[in-house]
């Protein structure tokens, strides 16, 4: 029974507004009216006679509209309905109980932690470790300047509990876990191992999610050393889920040890690890994996070059030929003789194709970067040298298994010769034509973008733009984007007649045979693209991701420290948009917040696509706050991030209900976004 429900409701609305929830006066009145109706239906004479839990349930059902607002409601409700004194007394009893297990009292010195924890039976030792860990995390047991530990005084404990209750904690376990994770967030990764005795009790997922992947891996490894396997498994499962999303990691050894311990090292996880650090192939855990042959095909060429030589050491000739035939040319440039000596005479031929690949790589550098005569001469030398050896090989007896590689070598040599001749004759468009015809979409676009930025020849830039458009239209036909909807069938006479469907209806003697096409307007979006220095590594990825939306734009925003807003009108040609994207120079600091604010100015709310690593480097309002603000105003915000991104900001955006997709292959974007617009 409550003394005055109206006062409680008004106080609750004030508390919720402090928490950031927009609760209107009309909603409070509606909640009170529903309470009165509920009371009369159930049989209460007055709302003040209702049970406190019933009052909470009714008010919550009216005021809480989203699942993420429930925690805020619970915190505000508990502050109003639960006496802080009672909570403090309850938490103090729990502390005294834990101290009793350890045989300690307030204000007592601990001369030897080991002696304190290691006495008694095995179950008693386990219980002592948990009690000690809980009190240390909570701050009841603290380290002194002399190197020993002590229990704080009762007065200090009450002051500590008062601070924790004001932060919304209701139990010592929640408070200890949350405060300990906050401490870990602030300390360096090397100091995590010093937290040994604090690792004996379990921590909930919701607290562990605050830690970045590197600290989480270190925490998991240390938890295994301290035999806290529940905590270690939770850390491992969280890391595995992040790796599945494509989030890269730095401390590879800790990650691999932890995942391998719980048998969580999947194909996707190995791929993410090798993408961020290809030299992890030398780790025994990765090198023994059965997934390596599949994973290498999905890595970028720069990673393949490092992984391939090690992988070839333990492969038979047929497997080597099958793998090399599938890999791009650039991946073949670093195969050493030592990695293929076990293949006998065939090793000489693999060395030849490596030399041809190196000649191609140098010729490509001379074409795209204007690297000069030295690269051109070295490329010619490598090509001529390898071709002499190649002629000697094919005129002698060679294993028939090598035929796929022989054809690939001939094709690569022809392409290299075309590039060299086009450079000498100053007709680079011939090389461009050959490259865009023979390379994959990603490789070709990367080359075109490099040449477009470095070239100051207007006619060459027009040719590059033409080739880029051809690539884009080809990719568009392949991807079949769900972003732009086509047309639907209707019987409304104001639209074009669909002859095929009409004839079909006539043949079936339909009473309404005339079918017309009704065109649906293209979905328009605001595209915000990060071209700061932190995205330089993902320049091609960014262009591919942005090109998905080229024919659906109402506004294009390119930003680094400064923001460039480009209005896209109905008649803006696609080649102009491609030109803008290809001309982007990835450099400078990152001001995401300013870009979003500028992108949403003076335009009706619609869909905003943000392509960024979410690493805000300019001091401003945090991006998640800006996203939350414009979302409340009717905008739909979808963030697309590369594998290397700011995990903490990603977490904050998802916590407020934002949509963040970590995408490795931009070709997957239409399929992912179709769930919003299907």
Number of helices: 31
* Strand line-up of the largest beta sheet: 9-8-7-10-11-12
State the helical fraction: 55-70%
N- and C-termini, Cα separation: 49 Å
Strand content: 5-15%
Radius of gyration: 33 Å
Question: What is the β-strand count?
Answer: 12
Mean pLDDT: 81
Spans where pLDDT lies below 50 across 5 or more residues? 478-494
| Largest sheet data | 6 strands, mixed
Overall 3D form: globular
The helix/strand class is: alpha/beta
How many domain regions? 5
Write the layout of secondary structure elements.
Layout: H1 5-18, H2 25-42, H3 52-63, H4 70-81, H5 84-102, E1 109-110, H6 113-118, H7 122-138, E2 141-143, E3 149-151, H8 154-166, H9 172-186, H10 205-208, H11 213-225, H12 229-244, H13 252-261, H14 267-276, H15 284-287, H16 292-295, H17 301-312, H18 317-326, H19 346-369, H20 373-395, H21 403-424, H22 428-438, H23 441-454, H24 458-479, E4 487-490, E5 496-497, H25 499-507, E6 516-519, E7 525-530, H26 539-547, E8 553-559, E9 563-567, H27 574-582, H28 592-599, E10 607-611, H29 623-632, E11 636-641, H30 647-655, E12 659-662, H31 669-677
Parallel strand pairs: 7-8, 7-10, 10-11, 11-12
Antiparallel strand pairs: 1-3, 2-3, 4-6, 5-6, 8-9
Helix pairs in contact: 1-2, 1-4, 2-3, 5-7, 5-8, 7-9, 11-12, 11-13, 19-20, 19-21, 19-23, 20-21, 21-22, 22-24, 23-24, 23-26, 24-27, 28-29, 29-30
In words, what does this structure look like?
- The chain has 678 residues and is α/β, with parallel strands linked by helices.
- The chain folds into five domains: 5-81, no CATH class; 86-282, no CATH class; 300-439, no CATH class; 487-519, no CATH class; 525-677, Rossmann fold, CATH 3.40.50.
- The protein has 31 helices and twelve strands.
- Strands 9-8-7-10-11-12 form a six-stranded mixed beta sheet, sandwiched between helices. The protein has a three-stranded antiparallel beta sheet with strand order 1-3-2. The chain has a three-stranded antiparallel beta sheet with strand order 4-6-5, with no helix packed on it.
- The longest helix has 24 residues, at 346-369.
- The relative contact order is 0.04.
- Residues 478-494 have low confidence and may be disordered.
């Amino acid at each position: 029974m409550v003394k005055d429900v109206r006062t409680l409701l008004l106080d609750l609305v004030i508390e919720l507004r402090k928490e950031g929830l927009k609760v209107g006066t009309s909603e409070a009145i509606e909640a009170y009216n529903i309470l009165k109706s509920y009371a009369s239906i159930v049989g209460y004479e007055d709302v003040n006679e209702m049970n406190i839990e019933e009052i909470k349930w009714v008010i919550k059902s009216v005021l809480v509209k989203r699942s993420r607002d429930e925690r805020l409601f619970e915190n505000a409700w508990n502050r109003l309905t639960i006496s802080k004194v009672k909570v403090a007394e309850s938490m103090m009893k729990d502390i005294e109980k834990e101290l009793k297990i350890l045989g300690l009292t307030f204000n007592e010195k601990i001369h030897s932690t080991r002696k304190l924890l290691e006495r008694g039976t095995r179950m008693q030792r386990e219980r002592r470790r948990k009690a000690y860990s809980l009190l240390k995390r909570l701050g009841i047991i603290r380290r002194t300047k002399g190197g020993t530990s002590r229990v704080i005084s009762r007065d200090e404990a009450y002051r500590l509990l008062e601070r924790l209750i004001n932060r919304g904690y209701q139990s010592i376990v929640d408070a200890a876990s949350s405060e300990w994770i906050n401490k870990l967030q602030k300390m360096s990764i090397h100091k995590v191992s010093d937290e040994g005795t604090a690792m004996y009790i379990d921590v909930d997922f919701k607290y562990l999610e605050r830690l970045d992947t590197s600290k989480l891996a270190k925490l998991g490894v240390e938890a295994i050393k301290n035999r806290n396997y529940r905590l270690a498994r939770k850390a491992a499962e969280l890391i595995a889920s992040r790796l599945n999303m494509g989030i890269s990691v730095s401390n590879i050894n800790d990650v691999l040890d932890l995942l391998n311990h719980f048998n969580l090292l999947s194909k996707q996880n190995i791929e993410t690890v090798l993408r961020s650090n290809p030299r992890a192939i030398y780790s025994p855990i990765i090198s023994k994996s059965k997934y390596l042959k599949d994973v290498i095909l999905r890595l970028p060429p720069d990673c393949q070059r490092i992984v391939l030589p090690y992988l070839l050491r333990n492969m038979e000739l047929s497997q080597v030929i099958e793998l090399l035939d599938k890999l791009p040319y650039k991946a073949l440039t670093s195969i050493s003789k030592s990695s293929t000596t076990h293949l006998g005479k065939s090793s000489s031929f693999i060395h030849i194709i490596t030399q041809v690949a190196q000649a191609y790589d140098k010729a490509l550098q001379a074409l795209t970067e204007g690297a000069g005569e030295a690269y051109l001469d070295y490329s010619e030398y490598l090509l001529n040298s390898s071709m002499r050896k190649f002629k000697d090989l094919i005129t002698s007896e060679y294993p028939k298994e090598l035929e796929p590689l022989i054809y690939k070598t001939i094709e690569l040599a022809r392409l290299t010769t075309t590039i060299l001749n086009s450079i000498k004759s100053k007709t680079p468009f011939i090389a461009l034509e050959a490259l865009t015809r023979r390379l994959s979409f990603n490789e070709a676009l990367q080359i075109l973008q490099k040449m477009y930025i470095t070239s100051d020849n207007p006619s060459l830039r027009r040719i590059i733009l033409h080739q880029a458009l051809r690539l884009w239209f080809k990719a568009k036909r392949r991807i079949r984007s769900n972003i732009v909807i086509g047309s639907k069938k209707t019987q409304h006479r104001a639209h074009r007649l669909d002859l095929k469907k009409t004839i079909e209806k006539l043949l079936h003697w339909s009473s309404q045979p005339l079918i017309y096409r009704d065109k649906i307007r293209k979905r328009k979006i605001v595209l915000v693209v990060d071209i700061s220095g932190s995205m330089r590594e993902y320049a091609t990825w960014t262009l591919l991701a942005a090109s998905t939306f080229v024919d659906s734009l109402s506004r294009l925003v390119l930003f680094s420290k400064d923001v460039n807003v480009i209005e896209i009108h109905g008649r803006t040609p696609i080649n102009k948009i491609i030109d803008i994207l290809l001309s982007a120079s990835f450099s400078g600091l990152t001001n995401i917040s300013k870009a979003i604010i500028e992108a949403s100015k003076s335009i009706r709310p619609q869909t905003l696509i943000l392509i960024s690593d979410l690493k805000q480097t300019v001091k401003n309002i945090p991006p998640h706050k800006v996203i939350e603000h414009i979302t409340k105003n009717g905008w739909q915000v979808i963030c697309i991030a590369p594998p290397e991104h700011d995990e903490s900001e990603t977490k904050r955006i998802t916590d407020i209900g934002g949509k963040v997709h970590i995408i490795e292959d931009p070709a997957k974007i239409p399929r992912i976004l179709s769930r919003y617009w299907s």
